[in-house]
Amino acid sequence: MNATATATATTVATAAAAAAAAAAAAAAAATAPSTAAATPAASLALRTKLRPTVPVLRAATAALWRPDALRERYVRYLAAMQPLVRASVPLLVRAAERCAAEPDDPAARRLAAYCLRHAEEERDHDAWLLDDLAAAGAGPAAVPHPIVVELAGAQYYRIEHEHPVTLLGYIAVLEGNAPGPRLADRLAEVTGLPSGAFRTLREHAELDGGHLDELYRVLDALAPTPARQTAVSVSALHTADLLTRLFLSLAQDPGGHP
């Protein structure tokens, strides 16, 4: 193994170990009983629970976007993200449908309105990724990455068997880890791919910050019970762990699924 490969393996392994430790600590914090005299706003509580995951996800992202073999890895990233983004609108619509089953709950009506509004904002974004792949000379994955299936599948379970408000934890993590405003230009320079291969990164760098602010306003307006607030936090922490694992998988292996 050459020095570059050794360094890469060390970076990925270190990030993976940190991810496991942070996920365990954060999950314990999410379910621990609160001793505070007053319950903080739901959005503040969620941000606090997610704080330990921030450096871990950053390390995984840094490993994903390191320069060596970046062209191939970026194409694999697009192919992994396309089915995940494709699941966004159906998840939001299903959450709104489950809210409709609670017609006497004002919070459910508010959540349903948010889900339907956000579904329209996210509509056809998976087509952007197909266009990015085509511009990069590639096509969609024959089958979704296993971690992508777990990311979306966990939300279907929570919507059906816990409460649709848990979807807000998932969205908070995805939109809270949106690409930076200069990432697309840097990747274009390093990979040599055409500008048309980076539409999704550019669009989400502009959109997701505003979407995240709206999500936190909605979460606070819902004033979830302590049990539902915990469920949102657990959903978010699970998502952060899975997203870290996905990025590390893509960073480690430029070829097929692990």
Describe the protein.
The longest helix is centred in the N-terminal third of the chain and has 29 residues, at 3-31. With 258 residues, the protein is mainly alpha-helical. α2 (42-50) packs parallel to α12 (226-252), α5 packs parallel to α8 (146-161) and α8 packs antiparallel against α12 (226-252). It contains 12 helices and no strands. The two termini are 20 Å apart.
Approximately how much helix is present in the residues? over 70%
Q: How does the major sheet shape up?
A: none
Strand/helix succession: HHHHHHHHHHHH
Estimated share of beta-strand residues? under 5%
Sequence stretches where pLDDT stays below 50 over 5 or more residues: 1-11, 31-39
Overall spatial form? globular
Number of strands: 0
Separation of the first and last Cα atoms: 20 Å
Radius of gyration from the alpha-carbon trace, in angstroms: 19 Å
Derived structural class: mainly alpha
Please tally the helical runs, counting DSSP H or I stretches of 4 or more residues: 12
| Nearest-integer average pLDDT | 86
Keywords summarizing the entry:
258 residues; mainly alpha; 12 helices
Gist of the model:
With 258 residues, the chain is mostly helical. It has helices spanning 3-31, 42-50, 53-64, 70-86, 88-100, 106-122, 125-135, 146-161, 167-176, 183-191, 199-222, 226-252.
Please outline the helices and strands.
Blueprint: H1 3-31, H2 42-50, H3 53-64, H4 70-86, H5 88-100, H6 106-122, H7 125-135, H8 146-161, H9 167-176, H10 183-191, H11 199-222, H12 226-252
Helix pairs in contact: 1-3, 1-12, 2-12, 3-12, 4-7, 4-8, 5-6, 5-8, 6-11, 8-12, 9-11, 9-12
